[in-house]
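Minutes, methods subgroup
Present: GH (chair), OT, SY

1. OT presented the first of two proteins processed in the latest run. Sequence and structure tokens recorded below as shown on screen.
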Amino acid sequence: MRAMSQAGSSAPIPSIEVAARDPEWIAHRYDPGHDAVHLLPVPRAQQRKATFLTDEYLPAGLQPLIVRRRDAAGALPAPAPIHFVFHSAFCCSTVVANAFDLRGRSMGLKEPVILNDLIGWRRRGGEGPDMAEVLDDALRLLARPFAQGESIVVKPSNAINALIAPILTLRPQAQALLLHAPLRTYLGSIARKGLDGRLWVRTLLLGLLDDRLVDLGFSPRDHLGQTDLQVAAIGWLAQHALFARTVQAFGPGRVRTLDSATLMADPARAMAALATHFGIPFSDSELAAIVSGPAFTSHSKFGTTFGAIERANEEETGVALHADEIDKVIAWTQAVADAAGISMVAPAPLF
């Protein structure tokens, strides 16, 4: 079957069978009303360059190939090994995903929108096809190998964290890293982003409430009376509790945790441990190239030089400008955590 031509190009869009087998046709969107998948042509180099696999960062004017989900799934090749970097935001998760772009070994997929579509559909009630079946097909679409022997490392948006347990249940061979920033660093990141950051944490809290992931003794009305950084801390703590439950449910053999400070303090050790956890055989020279390469030395959004020193200076600036408020919110969060029986230290550390 031939379909529409790509916008701005005379080249025809390939058949469903060809596109479904080609990981450079990314599984971009899921339309539950028509039980259809939108595939977009994005070469590997552009996938690597894009901060996230979202419309904001992908080339403009791409013409999707819209196919029935079952048709796309029926044409898929044998899946590659797939692993996951789940996170609670502002914790260098994009750095980790970029670090796994190594031809012949692995490819990192950064925040594919199709998973966001599924969590949105779930929050709306998920009427139509069976949710587990659709999620399974979405994971199969994400696990298309770029080359023989390559693994796929998916870093979803933290908006989909309510799907962590279903994803790991559907993929019993998948390993997961649960990545977070220390609370002080996280609050500094939010404060540094100004109004955008403060609005974002409230949007995050709404999603966590919709997903029934907040059980800290507060009513929805209570959250209206909390400051922006208290709301940020609630979101951080709710995800921290979710990560602890995930380790308990799936075990440290499959699920490990890591904080961004430990990652950036010793990236070579962290990447070596994570490669072992994911079963991806990096050589010493490959690991050295990863740690000295753009993933760890350039800004994931702007591409400018941004190593450990620049990152530490940025974090210190965010904390220093709001130190009094951050100190008070950290003390308050510890009290909330103690009352809820939540440890502020994540279990099953990567190393």
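2. SY then presented the second protein from the same run.
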Amino acid sequence: MERISYQEVPTEIFEKLRAIEDYLHSSTLGMPLLELLRLRVAQINGCAYCVDMHYKELKHANETELRMASLCLWKETSYFSDKERAVLQLAEKLTKLNSEPITESIYKSLFEFFSKSEVCNLALAIAQINTWTRLMITFQFTPGNYKVSR
């Protein structure tokens, strides 16, 4: 059961977060990659609402069931490209924060595929989905109701 309904959330919160989403959607990162990292962060954070949403978005974008089901084990599979692996590695590092710095090997793998601006956008996208998951867990929005609107 929802603790705080969608209608009870101050509209400014969602407006500001949507502005960041619009910025990210217009970036060169591409929706499939963004949705992949969003689903992985939602899994890590245990946000059922966000897992439901990003699973449906990936399915709508014709992502395979095998890759979506294996995302939580991406390191043990061969289903993800080196570019996706670099992003997933950063997503996990920034989501599971600890006192250790981001290693040079992580940066090196990112810069094989992305410009500095794109790495900045990836960091923002990861921070953004971490914000969303924390809000959805706090509000307890009901999973299963999300519908892809495109």
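Chair's summary of item 2: Residues 11-139 form a domain with the AhpD-like fold (CATH 1.20.1290.10).
Next meeting: continue with the remaining queue.
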